[in-house]
Model the fold of this input.
Amino acid sequence: MRPTPLPTSDATDGVHAHSRYHGMDFIRAVMMLLGVVLHTALVFEQQKDFWVYQDPDTSPFAGLFALLIHIFRMPVFFVMAGFFGAMLFVRRGAAVFAGHRFERIVIPLVIGWFVLYPLLMWSLSFALTHQMESGGERSILGALTTMSWSLEFQDPGPMHLWFLYYLVYYYVFFAVMSLILRSLARPLVRFFSVCVQSLSLGRFRWFRLPALTLMSFPLMLTMTDVGLDTPLEWTPSWNVLGAYALYFGVGWVCYHHRELIVALQRFAWTRLLGGVLLLILAAILSIIWHLSSLAPDSEALDPDVASLLFVVTQFVQVAATWLLVMGLTGVCERVFRRENPVVRYLVDASYWIYLMHLPLTIFVPACFRFWNVDGTVKMFLMMVLVTLPLLICYHLLVRGTVLGVVLSGRRYPVWPLTGRSPVNTE
Done:
């Protein structure tokens, strides 16, 4: 049965109901592409044993880039995922929604893991073998021939695909709850809709940021480190699952109040600037907290001071994240009012690039391990060298093939800027 839209002021507005949100599509793609920046930067982190592999030419900016991106990237992504998930659920119905998400999320998760886990292990084996070669015997071919090609599947984790695993939980939960509430508790749905409307656009709209911050903040206090923990196991971390569920849920609800997207375009640059400033403050507090945790016992902070610093840091991170969500949404929806073919191409390619990038962030820097150059310059070059082959593979092997159908639902022409319409298989 096709679900009935929640009662909002624009539920029957044909323009809003069927418009494409190019700006939010762009945000979602950028958050995935930032994964390449994050994981490549970790290779050049100065702190020893911080990542599974470290290049000898480190960069003083690597840790800062990784920290800044980690604070906001996945929360922003899950807000966008919730928004577009609700859009598909409302427009196409529960049955189509379930099939669509199975094809786009579950299949890439299962097949992708069995392809990427060996590639990641082999990349790491190559990197460590190449690292131990003596001066006169350093060669990529030599490392490839002497490295171990065996695989051990002892407690393997979800790697960077954990976000797909968590998305499955969110899609099932919010789709089922939407059907149940619409069938059994329509007065409650109307009351909730009125409350959201008042908080988002009504007289209480000035409490929007404090309300979102206060909702997210308690779960942030359950993390083992400043920021949001990264899931490393298939068993869900319930505090992390709950924290990201809130971001996803806000995106899901936001689709039913799409007039908020228009409202966020007012003062969008101000919100974005405020979010950036808070992000910088959050990074500074995070660095202070990390340094204090690494200090010897004689120089460590008083436990009460350390606890207060943790609480303040988590609060600032949450506030910065929500400001960035609102600021980025408003700015990008203002800037990307029409489809740009180049931007659209990168949006389409971003899913493939994110899925496949992690092994290359180890393998490519390892190939250039003995190229002595400034670490910061080398780091940026590696980001380019990781992305380019994935972009070429996307263009030649994915975009016009069955892989493109699985990842985006469409088989695009090989040359995407010719103006030809793609074949939609949905």
